[in-house]
Design goal:
Order of helices and strands: HHHHEEEHHHEHH
Shape: globular
Distance between the termini: 10 Å
Strand content: 5-15%
CATH topology: BirA Bifunctional Protein, domain 2
Number of strands: 4
Helix content: 40-55%
């Protein structure tokens, strides 16, 4: 039986510290093999084992590790940051069959000194915003119950995201869920102890954070789950 992911090596975190100081191609290219051995391959293994955890509490979010893990290369065409490499390592888990990853998802990233777990919606387009607000308008008591769960509050705190200053057009300004419907983003976020990155505690900590967020993520995806066709996902075993 495959042992639990042991954590990233201290050398991997040292590599990220060095990359932050030397974010240029001349430094990275001779060390690309180090990146792949210390970070890329362990990250794929970690996501593979996290997928096994997802099968227990959120099987619709099992994602091929090759699709889940973000590339380290930064697309600088539309970014103010012109450094060629990302200094955080990240993975995303959208709902299976989601068109262009629409809807709520799970996400995590780490740097040499930060570990973050996320569940929800960060950059919805106009149609998505309308779908979320319509869902909340009709089922706000269900969402409020999810967000008031003691374990969720203890693990990830309160709902986060930017808000409009007034109620969006098309919705009654005195709606009882007015605060929830003024949101432009709906997400939960846990800032975790980065010391676990180099230990076997990393996998269960991320998995437990995602598990407690699952009712919230599934609630937000309800409008899209009805329309999307299931898509067969590749499960990568390690």
């Amino acid at each position: 039986m495959k042992s639990v992911f042991p954590g990233f090596s201290p050398d991997a975190l040292s590599f990220l510290r060095s990359l932050k100081r030397n974010n240029r191609r001349e430094w990275f290219q001779p060390r690309k093999e180090q990146y792949e051995q210390l970070i890329k391959m362990p990250m794929l293994e970690f996501v593979g084992q996290l997928n096994a955890a997802f099968t227990r509490f959120a099987p619709s979010y099992v994602t091929d590790p090759q699709r889940s893990v973000f590339r380290i290369y930064r697309d600088t065409r539309f970014s103010h940051d012109k450094t060629p490499y990302k200094t955080h390592i990240a993975a995303i888990f959208p709902r299976n069959g989601a068109e262009r990853m629409r809807g709520a998802c799970f996400y995590f990233h780490f740097t040499e000194k930060e570990l973050l777990a996320f569940g929800g919606v960060y950059q919805p387009d106009r149609d998505e915003l309308l779908a979320y607000r319509g869902l909340i308008a009709e089922h706000h008591t269900e969402l409020e119950k999810i967000l008031s769960d003691k374990k969720l509050r203890r693990t990830v705190g309160h709902l986060q995201g930017e808000q409009l200053s007034r109620m969006p057009k098309g919705f009654a300004p005195d709606h009882p869920a007015e605060s929830l419907m003024r949101q432009r983003q709906w997400y939960l976020e846990a800032i975790l102890d980065s010391k676990v990155l180099a230990t076997a505690r990393l996998l269960p900590l991320i998995a437990s954070s995602f598990e407690v967020m699952t009712p919230f993520v599934e609630f937000l995806n309800r409008p899209f789950a009805r329309r999307e066709k299931p898509k067969k996902m590749l499960f990568m075993a390690f």
